[in-house]
Amino acid sequence: MDMVYQMGKASVAEIRKQLDDPPSYSAVRALLRVLEEKGHVAHQRHGQCYVYQPVVSQQEAKRSAFEHVFKTFFNDSAEAVFATLLEIRGNVLSKTEVESIGSKLNQVRVGPQEKN
Predict the structure, then answer these.
(1) What CATH number corresponds to the domain at position 47?
(2) By residue range, what is the domain housing residue 49?
(3) Which of 24, 80, 96, 110 is the most exposed place for a label (fewest CB within 10 A)?
(4) Is this prediction's pTM over 0.70?
(5) For residue 76, pLDDT beyond 90
């Protein structure tokens, strides 16, 4: 999907050419077919090959992927996500990041209390 976003539109051969250690032609084609079935890409026939292009914006795809990760691996816990991000970064953020995150946190609306 990254390659399709970067290139705007691409054939299987063009995608494989951009990869350092590309999977087989049929593996890339199969993945694109799955992405098409899920509504992420569409294709048009150009001569003998299909050219694929994104159907959803990259921002929309990022959000959808993150929502899936958020629910699957973090049990809908923003605290767990934030703790993991800090752990990955070695608990070090730039001054700009801290100010930006602080500003966003100041805009957060507190929801109902958890039941113990």
Answers:
(1) 1.10.10.10
(2) 2-54
(3) 110
(4) no
(5) yes
